[in-house]
Design brief:
Elements lengths: L2 H13 L4 H8 L3 H9 L4 E2 L3 H8 L3 H4 L8 E2 L11
Length: 84
Amino acid sequence: MLPSERMLIRDRRKQLGIPLKELAKQLGITRVFLNEIERGDARIPLARIPDLSRILGFTEQDLLRERGDCLICCGTGRAPSENR
């Protein structure tokens, strides 16, 4: 994952003044897991993309760009292209 992409969520959250713990609560995930996502150590589940895009003001397409180092996975720990 490229540094600019992995910081996309963190930068927007901070820009909006949303604490990590609050965003995690709104998404129904743990603060630790959200921190891992923001660091690029984990990928956000597909089921959380609509809520995350709404809260942060992105379109779902912004978060679902078809890239090998994308922000999301399909619940398998693999990129979407690996799940075919």
